[in-house]
Amino acid sequence: MVSPIPPATCEQHLANLGQVLKTVWEQETVDAQLTVIADYMQQLFPHVLTWIGLYDDDEQSLTTQTAVMTSGKNFLWQKIKLQPDDAVQQVIERGAPAAVYDLQESHRAGEWKAIAKRLELHDAIVFPIQRQDECLGVLLLGSSRRGMSLKSGVQKKTFSILVTTLATILHRHQQDYYLQTEKRPSQPFFQLLAKLETIQELEPRLQAIVDATHRFVGANRARAYWFEPQQRFFWHRVSNGGHNRHVYAASEPAMSQLSASGYQEFYQMLSCGDVIVIGDDFSSHPDAVIEPLKKAFDKPSLMVAPILMQGDLLGFLVVEATQPRHWTVPEKRYLTAAAQVVSLGMPTSVLQERVADLEANHQLSVGIAQSIHGDRDWQSVMARCAEQLIATLEIDGLLVLIPDLECSGFEVSYQHHGTRSKPTQGMWRSLHDVDWQLLARQTTPVCIENLENDLKLRAWHPQFLQMEMQAIMACNLSPGQAPEGVLLVTDSDTRRWNQTEQDLLQSVGRQIGLVLHQWSLQRQAQQQSQMHDTMQWGLRNLQRTFDVTQLEQAAAHHISQLLRLPLVALVVWENGQKEARLASSVIRDQQFAAQDNPPILVDGDALINWAIQTDGVIQLEYEELPDVTRQWLRCPGHSQILVVALRTSPEHTLNGAIVLADEADRRFSDQQMSMLAVLVHQLAWCRRHLLLTGRLNDQKNRLTELNWYKHHHMDDVRRQVRESRRQLGNLKQLPNMGEQPYFHAIESRLAGIEKELLRLTSRERWSMASDPRKVPLVGLLNRLMKRVQTQVQKKQLWTQVHCDSNLALQGEMQKIEFILYELISAACRRSPARGRVDIWSRPLEQHWIELSITDDGDIDEAIITALVKGHRRDHLAESQLDRPPGLNLSICKSLMIRLGGEFLLEKLDDNRIRSSVIFPMSRPVG
């Protein structure tokens, strides 16, 4: 057991520790600082070996930094390898100190087992030297005895402070080492700039930049390649050591040129301004860029920086290493800066040439603008623009495309071609969404340098190949918005479009776009005028048609003509019917067909149900339709289907839908969709109006015929009654017959019947007339009960009249009596056998009376609901009030309202049915 020597007091211990730390920071070298700490550890805690090693995470090893032994022996091990199960490795991973017992025998000692045997060590305490969770090294205290440990808390805290100090010392040492070894590009770069001030020509400037780059980076070779925009290839221009283009081509002919088409990904990265780094353990770009480049230069490590001037690619600088190499950040920064210096240091003659081109392009744009504003002929304006652009840009063709939304494509509005370009015919396909958004959002032209390697504007590639064009610039004539037109310039050879050419096309495109916009507005105004006239004509025809079949046929033809559709079909069905029918269809293309054989099921057809459930136009593909719908609707593959329901009021039941079909690439404008909605809406209301008018006329005719028949029948009955009275009078002339009292009763009754029939057939032949009468209430109720006596006896009903009043009623009592009989008879019919029917009466105020009938029968809730609402939502839809018993009750209610009273049918809380009427005692019929 090692016995530590504690200080006399805590204050003395702190004083000693402070003096040691002061001495440590006064030392000028790391070794001296570490030695001071090691000596103090020997005084604080006696042991044989104090060893400090630097940790290398990549190599998993420790390098001896300081080793102090009390025996005076030398520590001979410079680098000590670590294994995953080593005790020292475990300390590093856990980040906490640990004791290792008997290094000579422990299987976890690793290489320290041999060290312990030579230095006669047994136990050890290992401290990880950490800073912010990063292990910088290890402190090991070795003892020649067993049982070594830190016993007191003062020792543990002191060693913790000393280890923290060691971490700070090693971290500073590490930072100083990096600063000493890191390359600093600032000084050599300033020297390069000073040298370039004395050089005016481009070739010597490039040579100086390449040589300076080679010296700083220290690679095997540095080179500069230049770009030929017309033929799109890079050629070697300068190499370190003075190699010129021709010497290099003779020595390595395979590398004299790099085609942009052959190295498309590499070319695109350079055009975007990317610096490409290929090292032994890192590559900045995917294999599609890296592998062809390594094979071309046949070097394992490369760095490439683009030379850009105002967005145009002039060439690139490249540094090569024949051995795998790690490129540092300063080296990458220096190469990037050197490439930028090339463009900044372009000779004055080159800059003057660029300025002259810009001035010429400006004059060209101004000249075109003047010609545009001075000439209203579109073809003449475009011919002048084309001649000037072709001459300036040295291109082979120029086109202006205008989108045609109806045909879902582009129409060639103008084209001009040289001797190497062929004209194009027909519609151009619509662009994919990606290309459409690219034209709409990008403020600069869309450039294609080589058609074979570029996927932009893919839908137009067949036309470009037909024209034998390889390079294209496309300019949106309404930049920042959906294209109202596209200006295309084409070249039969591959070429790079520089920034000056792009700016010129953009400037000219703005001027052409203004004229195109005005021309487009004029065409739209003409189309809208024609469309408005056609629509007005169609609406007038719809309103002048009084036959439903003619209306349906006229509407289908009109919609087909207005929208130029190959198929228009009108599918209708009656309310409550299970099958729909094809009311009208217009087919202009034999590839489209519509028929109602087999039958179209309303509930089973998805198209009809989608139309019923959707408000507005449904737009879908033919492939989305189920097989049931395809049996009656046939279209070519990928056709588009539009379905619109014949909607009127939300309360009305749908009974029709119109189906439209066209090719897949057809696009409908917002204006066309709006007009379609208006026409279908007008058709729905006109059709409903004709159907409702027809139904009401049919009902009126049937009721008029029925009224005529019944009146003639009553005339005949009145004639028979009159004849019976005459015969009865003749019978009274016989002897002893005139004295019989029943003859007088029969004659009086026949006279009353004849009088009543006369009143009905004369005064109320075509409408009801007022016939006020005075009737005792009790007598009225007695007559009613006698009339229903047969029903009461048949069902053995228990009936009771609750009336204690001797009130005499005066008013339209004949009609009220019929209404009350209908209600009492209905109560008896719906009552169960041995049921109960009660009749109640009570006066209300002075001139009103209420009669109520209650029964314990059952009635459809829909009848009660319909009577409560009073008005029908849809007169074309079926209702419970169209047939008895709802029809009878509805007539009772309407007649009571006509007489100035009220009728109410309700279900009470005890499930009894209550029918009540409230009527005035005296009020004439209006």
From TrEMBL:
One Pfam family here: GAF_3
Which domain of life, per UniProt? Answer: Bacteria
Q: Which residues form the GAF domain?
A: 29-180, 201-356, 377-526, 547-697
**Residues forming coiled coils:** none
Which InterPro entries does this UniProt record tie to the protein?
A: GAF, GAF-like_dom_sf, HATPase_C_sf
Q: What is this protein called?
A: GAF domain-containing protein
Query: What is the organism field in this record?
Result: Leptothoe spongobia TAU-MAC 1115
Q: What is the lineage of its organism?
A: Bacteria, Bacillati, Cyanobacteriota, Cyanophyceae, Nodosilineales
